Amino acid sequence: MCRSPVHAGNDSRGSWISVSCQFDQFDMALTRFERFQAWIIRALMRVIFALYQLFAPRPSDRSSKLPPITNPLLMVSGMQLAQKIRLKEVTSVEVVQAYIDRIQEVNPLINAVVKERFSAALQEAAQVDKLIDEEEGGEDVLEDRLPLLGVPLTVKEAFALQGMPNSCGLVSRRGVISSVDAPPVSLLKRAGAIPLGVTNCSELCMWFESNNRLYGITRNPYNTDRIPGGSSGGEGSILGGGGSVIGVGSDIGGSIRMPAFFNGIFGHKPTPGIVSNDGQYPPSSGMHEDYLCTGPMCRYAEDLLPMLRIMAGPNAAKLSLSSEVDLRKLRFFSVPHDGSSLLVSPVETELIQIQRKVVEHLEADLGVKVQELSFPQLKHSYQIWDTLMALPDKDGKPPTPFVDFMADHGKKVWPLWELVKWMLGMSSHTMAAIGLALTEMVQSSKPNPFYLKQKEDLQKELDELLGTDGVLLYPSHPQIAPKHHHPLFTPFNFAYTGIFNVLGLPVTQCPLGLSQEGLPLGVQVISGKLQDRLPLATALYLERAFGGWRDPGSP
User: Fold this and answer.
1) Residue 445 is assigned to a structural domain of this protein
2) What's the whole-model pTM score?
3) What domain range is 300 assigned to?
4) Could you tell me which residues are beta bridge partners of residue 212?
C-alpha cells in the first residue's frame, strides 16, 4: 500500500502534491500485462544466462587489491592543486608526473585509461610553470583567468579530445582520431586543465558495464571482480583509483551517476541544456538531446561547482552558482525505493540503511525535518524512460536505431546473426550491445499513452514538490557494485538513475562510505530544474559528514 506524503512544516503550498493510491481499471489491466511481460523477460534472461554460462570466457575468481596512495599530491582536490601551483608551492610538472605514476601503477589492474598522452601533458605542464614564473599580475589574476591552471584531467573516450581516439568502444571506429576538442573539454583546457588521456566506456555508451571488444573490460578499483559502472565507467574507475582528480562524463540514463556510485566518487548530472553535448559519439537523435547531459566527475565535492561553471560557459549564469545556499532553509525529502517494480531488483539493505543515516544526520545536525514520500509512478521508471527515449524529435524524426550505430562502415549488422557469431567467439560486439539491438527488433514503434501520462503526472508532482528550495534523496542503484557481467541479468536496474534524465532534473551523486564488503555506498541528491547549486551544496555537506571518497588501497 502506498503512503501519501503529508503537508510538512510551515510551507504555504500545502496542496503542492497529491499522490493517489487508487488505480483505475486501465492501470490494473496494465499491471496484469506488466506481470506477464516481466515473466517473459525473466524467462528470456534465464536463456541468456544459460548461453552466457556456456559460451562466455570464465572470469578470474581472484580480486586484485590496488596499492595504497603514497604521494600526498594525489590526496588534494583539483581546486587546491590549482592554488598550490599558482602559489609555487608545487609545480604543475610535479603534479602531472604524480598522476602519471599513479596511472601506470593502477591501470594494469583496472584498465580504465585506454589511451594516454603523458609526454604532451608533461610538456604542457612545463609551459604552465613557465607562465606562472613570468606572470606579473599575481595569483588572483591567474585564478580568475585560469582557475584550473596545471591540474590533470581525464576524459571519457566518447568525447572528442584532439589527437585522441574517439571510437566509443566500437571496433569499426578503431582508427577515428579527434581533430578538435568537444566544447566542454575545450572549456576545461582553456581554464588551464591538462588532459592525461581518455578512459573506457561501454560499447556505444548504452550499457552500465564498461566493456567493449576494442579496449576490453574495465574493473572497479575497490574490488576488481566488480563493475565500475557505465557508460562513463573508465572515468569513474580511474578517479576512484586515485589516478585522476577531475574528469568529464556524459549521462542519458545514469552514465555519470552509476560509475560515480560504484567507484565512490562525486558526479553531477546538470539541468539539461546547460552544458553542451556536442563533440561526443554517438550523436543525439530523436528527443535524446533533452535527456543527455554532460557533467563533471571528481573525487572531491569542492571541485564539482567550479567545474560545472567552467563547462557550462555562458549558460552558467542560468544556475546562479554564486548564490550561497543555507541548508537549514531547504526542505528535504526522502524516497527509499521505487515501490517494488516488477523489472527492477529490490534495494539492498545497506543502501536503505545508509540513506536512513543521512536522514537522521540531517535532522539531528541541521534541525530540519526530512519527510519520507512515495510515488506510485516510480515503479514504472524503466518503462517511462524507455517510452520517452523512443519519441521522435520536434520535426517528427525518430531516434537513430542502435543497430545503425553498430554498422561497420555502412555494412548493416543483423542482430540474430551477430548473436550466433558471439557464441562462436567471432563477433566484434558485446553481448550487451547485441541484446539491445535484439530488443529494438521487438519494440513497438508507438509510445504507450499510459507511460506518457505517468511521466506527465510524476513531472508535475516533483516540479511542484521541489520548487526552488526542495532537495530529494533517492537510491543511486538497487545494488552495490555488481560482479562483472551480472547487469546482463538485471538490465533494468538503471531505472533508478534513468528516470531523472527524462524528468530533466539535476542530480548529484554522493559517496557515503563503504559497505561491509568494502564497496562504495552512496545516494542521489535531486533538486528542481536550474537549482543545481542545492544538490552541489548538499554534496559538500555530506562529504564532511560521511568522509567522501576513500583510498581503495587503504586497509
Assistant:
1) no
2) 0.92
3) 72-377+457-546
4) 216
